[in-house]
Specification:
single chain, 19-stranded mixed β-sheet, binds 2-acetamido-2-deoxy-beta-D-glucopyranose, nine-stranded mixed β-sheet, 3 helices, mainly beta, disordered C terminus
């Protein structure tokens, strides 16, 4: 008890000592910090100051110099302020920051430089600034440089910074970040560059950086990404681009990054190489002219997510060398062209989702050389065209289920032999796609299909050779609701053909009175041939079909 009293007494004494003894710069408001009684909160905002006051008290914890007319930050301006954790310099006229101006700031929570006139960050202007030891995600510490007409961040401008988020942008000036700008930085929660008209990152800007948790680039036009631009980034959790117009991405553009292995990947043992998998690479709402081959080569990425982008071209082997990949997701993108082998090197990726993309053309061997894709869904979006080229699915050796679905206003164009080489597929379901005629060889090459389901396809005519020449290629066929085969002699012939071909089948037909009849291999009420029948003239070409693209593929 007496100890407690003593403590209290000394606290009060220290406080009163501080209140009586501290230096408060002329015209500023000062008061002891409520959290740390022996520290001082100094407020000099809005006082037309043209320079930093000289007589700052060493106990200063927080210094507000915002909304003044300060133009220069000289070397060592804050040298004798060991406790300084909040430094607000926003809305001044700062044009020049001397090298080492902020040296000895080792305890920063907030350094606000927004709204100044900085055009260049020279070498060492912001180097060696350290965040407080307890900076965290919940209470992040930052240097904010937004709202400056910044055009160049020189090499070593932010070298050796620690435990801080570095925030740039919201300016109307094109920005160039030079090589080594972030050299030696460590434990950086976030580097964010958002809202500049254009951004050029010299390659090797991140040489020797460790633990940049999040790199976020958004609302900008990103100039050419050279090979190994991001090389040196080590222990990254996420790289995120959104609303970015990419100019050109070179091969190996996103290579040279090591992502922090995630705990989940350490728990799930899906394969030896994946034990080190980590990180998310996320591009959304962006324009990508070309996704090059080998862009991510030799990174330990766990997830690659591309959503809501316009991607004009995906080159062959775009995802090669992602040896630890767990999840590849392409959702709701507008995709112009996918080159052969685009997804070609994917091996044993447990989750591949290609959904709701507007794909105009799925080329020959887009999946060539892939392994382990067991389910693929191609779902069309409204009002887009999807064409399946010959051999579109070739290379999907392990596919079990292929699911193709249309949508209103979509066009679906199936080229000859589109399904050829789709050897292993067990279930092929096609729905909501207009297929009025199943022409000769439509399904040629489906050698092992167990179940073929055709629903809501408006099928009204089927060529005898639609399923190829080999009986037994398909075991079960279901032509269910939404087709309009007439209950006539033609259909009866078809059923006889089906009988020799499939072990089981279900066909619905429409009677003269518009009633729906369900016919199976053992039904007793097949249509008879008592009426005269007309022989349909078959088109020898494939009819174009309407469909929009939505493509989901799942590896199990
Ligand atoms: C400093 O004082 C101004 C009013 O004079 C106030 O708006 C501002 O919030 C104060 N700064 C801090 C850090 O409390
Ligand atoms: C961006 O800058 C404009 C004008 O300089 C300002 O009004 C706006 O608040 C800034 N936005 C952000 C997010 O900082
Ligand atoms: C990807 O980034 C976008 C935009 O920044 C965000 O909305 C989305 O949640 C991110 N996706 C994942 C899986 O992190
Ligand atoms: C789809 O194809 C049709 C016919 O080829 C064409 O008229 C239409 O403009 C195409 N639609 C789109 C969205 O490309
Ligand atoms: C099938 O035909 C019906 C009626 O003729 C029509 O309403 C429907 O849109 C057609 N479906 C497709 C997928 O073309």
């Amino acid at each position: 008890m007496s100890q407690l009293l003593l403590l209290l007494a000394s606290a009060v004494l220290a406080d009163s000592a501080l209140t009586t003894k501290y230096n408060c710069p002329d015209r500023c408001h000062c008061h002891p910090s409520s959290l740390k009684q022996q520290r001082l909160v100094v407020n000099c905002s809005n006082l037309d100051f043209e320079e930093i006051p000289r007589d700052l008290d060493p106990a200063t914890l927080s210094l507000d110099l915002s909304n003044n007319h300060i133009q220069i930050i000289e070397k060592g301006s804050f040298d004798n302020l060991p406790y300084l954790s909040t430094l607000l310099l926003n809305n001044n006229r700062i044009r020049t920051i001397d090298a080492h101006a902020f040296r000895n700031l080792n305890n920063i929570r907030k350094l606000d430089l927004r709204g100044n006139r900085l055009t260049t960050l020279g070498p060492d202007t912001l180097s060696r600034i350290q965040g407080a030891v307890d900076c965290s995600h919940l209470d992040p510490c930052s240097i904010n440089l937004q709202d400056n007409p910044l055009s160049v961040v020189e090499s070593y401008a932010l070298s050796w910074c620690k435990r801080l988020s570095l925030i740039f942008g919201n300016s109307t000036t094109e920005l160039v970040v030079k090589a080594y700008a972030f050299y030696g930085t460590e434990d950086i929660k976030k580097i964010a560059i958002t809202g500049v008209p254009s951004l050029y990152l010299e390659h090797r800007i991140f040489t020797n950086t460790d633990q940049v948790k999040l790199l976020e680039i958004s609302h900008t036009e990103l100039k050419t990404i050279e090979k190994f631009t991001f090389e040196g980034l080590t222990n990254v959790n996420e790289i995120r681009f959104s609303h970015v117009k990419f100019e050109k991405i070179h091969e190996f553009g996103f290579s040279g990054i090591f992502y922090t292995p995630s705990e989940i990947s350490q728990l799930t043992s899906y394969s030896g190489a994946n034990q080190r998998a980590g990180g998310v690479f996320n591009i959304s709402q962006s324009i990508i002219p070309v996704l090059p081959s080998d862009g991510f080569r030799d990174t330990n990425l766990k997830s690659v997510i591309l959503a809501n982008n316009q991607i004009d071209l995906i080159k062959g082997y775009a995802f090669r060398g992602l040896h630890s990949l767990y999840c590849l997701e392409l959702t709701d993108n507008w995709v112009g062209t996918i080159k052969p082998y685009a997804f070609g090197s994917l091996k044993n990726v447990p989750r591949v989702r290609l959904s709701e993309n507007r794909l105009s053309h799925l080329v020959e061997r887009a999946f060539g050389n892939s392994k382990g894709i067991s389910k693929l869904s191609l779902h069309a979006k409204r009002n887009t065209n999807l064409s399946l080229g010959s051999y579109s699915f070739s290379g999907l050796r392990d596919i079990q289920t292929l699911d193709i679905k249309g949508a209103p206003g979509s066009r679906f164009v199936v080229q000859k032999d589109a399904f050829h080489d789709l050897g292993g597929v067990n279930t092929l379901q096609i729905a909501h796609v207009s297929l009025p005629t199943l022409a000769k060889h439509t399904f040629r090459g489906l050698n092992k299909v167990q179940i073929l389901k055709l629903e809501y396809c408006n099928i009204s005519h089927i060529d005898g050779l639609a399923f190829g020449g080999t009986p037994g290629a398909v075991a079960v066929i279901e032509l269910n609701e939404g087709n309009s085969l007439p209950c006539d002699c033609e259909t009866s012939k078809l059923l006889r053909d089906f009988q020799s071909r499939f072990s089981r089948f279900t066909v619905t037909c429409v009677t003269d009175h518009s009633a729906i009849k369900v016919l199976k291999e053992d039904s007793s009420d097949w249509p008879t041939c008592d009426k005269g029948t007309s022989i349909h003239v078959l088109p020898t070409y494939w009819l174009s079909l309407v469909l929009l693209a939505y493509l989901t593929c799942l590896y199990t």
